[in-house]
Design goal:
The structure is a homodimer of 429-residue chains. Chain A is α/β, with parallel strands linked by helices and 429 residues long. Chain A has three domains: 2-19 and 232-360, Nitrogenase molybdenum iron protein domain (Rossmann fold), CATH 3.40.50; 23-230, Nitrogenase molybdenum iron protein domain (Rossmann fold, 3-Layer(aba) Sandwich); 392-428, Single alpha-helices involved in coiled-coils or other helix-helix interfaces. Helices cover 45% and strands 17% of the residues of chain A. Chain A has helices at 9-15, 25-53, 64-71, 76-94, 133-146, 165-174, 184-193, 210-219, 245-256, 271-285, 291-299, 309-319, 352-357, 393-409, 413-428; strands at residues 2-5, 101-106, 109-117, 120-124, 150-155, 178-181, 203-205, 225-226, 234-239, 263-268, 302-305, 323-327, 343-346, 383-391. In chain A, the strands form three sheets. A six-stranded parallel beta sheet of chain A has the order 1-11-10-9-12-13, sandwiched between helices. The first copy, chain A, has a five-stranded parallel beta sheet with strand order 6-5-4-7-8, sandwiched between helices. Chain A has a three-stranded antiparallel beta sheet with strand order 2-3-14. In chain A, helix 4 runs parallel beside helix 5 (133-146), helix 5 runs parallel beside helix 6 and helix 9 crosses helix 11. The relative contact order of chain A is 0.14.
Chain lengths: 429, 429
Amino acid sequence: MQTYVSPSKSEWIGLCRRYFPNPQELETIVNAIINEVKANGDQALFKLTKKYDKVDLLEFKVPTDSIEKLTSSIPASLKESIAIAKYNIEKFHNCSIPDERKIETTKGVFCWSKRVPIEKVGLYIPGGTAPLFSSILMLGIPAMIAGCKEIILCSPPNKEGLLSPVVLYTARLLGIENIYALGGAQAIAAMAYGTESVPSVDKIFGPGNSFVTKAKELVSKSTVAIDMPAGPSEVLIIADESADPEFLAADLLAQAEHGPDSQVMIVSNSMDILQKTQLAIATQIKNLPRKNIAEQALSHSRSIYFKNINRCFEFSNEYAPEHLILSLHNALSHIDKITNAGSVFLGKYSCESAGDYASGTNHTLPTNANAKAYSGVSVESFQKKITFQRITKEGLQKLGPHIEILADAEGLQAHKNAVSIRLKKIKNV
Amino acid sequence: MQTYVSPSKSEWIGLCRRYFPNPQELETIVNAIINEVKANGDQALFKLTKKYDKVDLLEFKVPTDSIEKLTSSIPASLKESIAIAKYNIEKFHNCSIPDERKIETTKGVFCWSKRVPIEKVGLYIPGGTAPLFSSILMLGIPAMIAGCKEIILCSPPNKEGLLSPVVLYTARLLGIENIYALGGAQAIAAMAYGTESVPSVDKIFGPGNSFVTKAKELVSKSTVAIDMPAGPSEVLIIADESADPEFLAADLLAQAEHGPDSQVMIVSNSMDILQKTQLAIATQIKNLPRKNIAEQALSHSRSIYFKNINRCFEFSNEYAPEHLILSLHNALSHIDKITNAGSVFLGKYSCESAGDYASGTNHTLPTNANAKAYSGVSVESFQKKITFQRITKEGLQKLGPHIEILADAEGLQAHKNAVSIRLKKIKNV
C-alpha cells in the first residue's frame, strides 16, 4: 500500500484512478465468441465449453432430479446460515417497493405510474475457485420479489460438467428451476440472443471475470439490458482515532482477497491509525489462503492522510467507492456528507462481510466510480416503470388549447392536429 | 403503411423490427470527434462547431445578460402554456419520490437506503428545424426535483451563433443558468470528458440525431452514464370498433412527422377501423408541413389485424412500444395485460401529444423494444440509491457466526476473519 500525506486536489484524479489492466485483444476475442454463438447456437456453446471449461457436455440444462442428489451432502449448519441470509435479504428488499400513485394534474387529466416486472431475466453466477452462491441470493431474491416470470441461471461447469452443490441448493431454495451449466462470454451471448436450449432474456445480471464483463458490455449495445457496468471490487475506509486498526486491516484484506485487480483505500485524519493499520495488515496477511491475491491487490492500493475529516469525505466522494466503511466516532452523524458511494457501513462492528452475505443489503454494487450515477441492485433493477394517462373530454377541453400552442411553437403541426381534431369533434357533438 | 392480416407468431419478429439505417461509418466519425475533443478541448469544439454548425463562436457559454434580451419577444400565450405544462409536469414528477425506510433485519442489524441526487448532469437539447423546448421541461424539472447540484444544458447554435429564444426562456424559467451553444457529438464528448469551458458531468440526458445518439453510446462505455439507449420515436395503437379513425390517423401522423425513421403501428380486431384509418391518413397528410417526413415514416410502418383483442396485446408486448395508445371501449379494464411499454394513453381523448407536452408524464421514453427492460425518465433517473447499514455489538454477535460459515463456504477466509477478529475482541472485553 502506498502512503500519501495531505495530497492536493490536483493529485486526486490520479489517486482516484482504479487499476484496470484491460487488454486490447479482449474485445476481439469476446466479439468472436458472441458472433459464434449468434451464428451457431448450441453447437457453438458445446464447442466453447469444451475449449474454456475443458468438458464435453451433452446438455446445458441441469436436470431437476439430479439436484436433490447433489445437494444432499450440504451440512445443516450451512443450510441454516443460508436460510438466515435469505430471511434478512428478503426482509430488506421487500421494503423497497414504492406504491403506485394516481395524480390529477389538471381537472380531467389523470397520470400515474406502475412498476412492472421485467419478464425474462438471466443471472450469471461465477464458478471457478469459489462457488459464489451468495450472488444467487443477492440476484434471485429481488428477481422473485419483483415478480419476473422467467428467471434463468448460468454458471460454468467444473471439469466433471457439474455445478457446485451449494450453487444448486441455493438456486433451488429460491425456486429457480432453469439452471444451465454454462459459463464465460458464451453464457452471456446465449442469454442475449438465445439458442436452441437457452432462452434469450431481457436483462442480464451478475458478476464475472473480464470475459463476462466485456461480453455484458458488448451485448448491452444491442438487444439486452445489463445490471450495471462492472469493474474490480473496491473499498474505501474513512477512519479516525476511535477506529481499531485490527478491524481496519481485516476489512481491507477482505476486499483485497477478491482479486489481484481489487483496490482498497484507507483515508484518515490520524497518522497513528494509518501506521498501525499497515502493521496489522502485515500480521494478518501471513495466514491468508489467498495471500498471493491480496498482496497483488495491495500493491496498487492507497493509504491517505488528510488533516481533517471533512477532507476525507470530499476525497471519498470524488473516489465514489463501491463499499464505504465509516469507522468514526459517531459515524451516523456524518452520513449527509456522503454524495457518492454504493453501500455504506457505519461504525466499527459493521464490517463489509456482513453486507456481502447476510445483513440484508445487496452486494451487487457500482464499482469504478460508477457510484456517481448508478445504484446497486434492488427490486427496482428487476422492474421497469410504465406511465399511464387518462384524459377525459373535459380534461382535453381544458388542456388541449395549451398543447396546441406548444406543438405549434415546436413546429409540429401533426402534434397540434391530434388535439384540434378532437376538440372540433367535441364541440360539434 | 403495409397491412398484415392475422400474422402468425413466427412472423412477429419481423413485424417487430424497427427501421434502423445505422451506417457503419457513423461510429468511425463519432469516435474521431470524441477523441478530438478529449485531446484538444475547447480548441476542438470551436473547430467542430465551425464545421458542423457553420458558425464561428467566441465562447460557448451563453451570457446570462443576453438571455433577457433574447426572450423578450416570446408571446404571452406561449409563456402561459409553458407555465401550465411546467405546473403539470412538476405535479406528477414530485409524487414519484419514495421514502427512505429503515429495517431491522436481525436484532441489532439496521439497513436502509437513501436516494441521493446525481451531482452533475448534462442535458442535451436538439436544435435544428424545431427548438425542442419541451425536452427542457421533461429533463430539467426532474433534475431540479432530484436536487442535482450542477445542471448544464447544451444545444446547437444557429448560423448566427444563437440559441432559440424559447429554449433560453424555458431553461431560465427552470433556473438552469449554465447554457452552452454547443451541439452534436462534440457536445456529448465535452460533457463526458470536460474541456476548459464545459465542465464534465456524471450523467447525460436527452434526445438527438444519430451523431448524438452514437456519441452517448460510446461515452457511456467509459466515464459517464446516459439516460437510456436511444432509437427513433414510435407509437403503437390498439384500437377496437369503438375508436374514431380520424383520431387514430391524427395520432399516427403526429408520430410519423417526428422523423423519416419513426415507426407507427396500428393493431386492431376491426378490419373496418383499419381501413378507415388508412383513408383518414391519406386525407390528413395532405396539409401537413412535414408531409414529406411523415410519408417516409409511413413507408416502413404497419397496420395489423388480429381476430381478438388479447392477441393485439400479446403482439404489443412483443413490440414493446415507446408510446402505446389504447383506443378501446373501457380501456382501463385492459391495463393489466400490458407488460412492455414506455407510456400508455387510455381512451379516445388521451392523445399522445398531451403526454409529449403538458399532461404531466415524461416524454423521454425507451424506444426500439427497450421498454422490455428500461423505464422512461423520472426523478429517480437523476438520483442513485445508496444503501446503509449499522450493526451493533449485539447484532454482530447474533449474525456474525452465520457470516463466518457463509464466507468459509465460499472459500473467502479474509471475509470470515473480518468477523472473527471482531467477535474475539467483543468476547475478551
